[in-house]
Design goal:
With 113 residues, this protein is of the alpha/beta class. It is built from four helices and five strands. The chain is globular and about 35 Å long. This is Rhodanese-like domain-containing protein.
Length: 113
Amino acid sequence: MSETIPSEPAAEIPDAGDGGVTIVDVREQDEWDQGHAPGALHIPMVDMPARYGEIDPDDDIYVVCRNGGRSFQVTLWLQSVGYDATNVSGGMVAWQKAGRAIESADGGSGYIY
């Protein structure tokens, strides 16, 4: 059985906090600290089953990781528990290539390696 989920290019994702938009970053802490989308919600993939209630189900939900693999899995799982979520194709690597803003954990300019 082939699974299909909604997917959007990083360049087309609205900014977090733009009236009902939540970007959920599912990468590990060190990846998040290095650089993430401003306003994103950090819930590492491993913590998602315990913390998904932090996500507003009424928001437009975009799930991102480094390249799109983990976020695909989390998006699929969120849909299985009733959330309408979209995978960010290409992840934070594509986000950076698109020239989107990235901040580090200390609030400075971030970078995706």
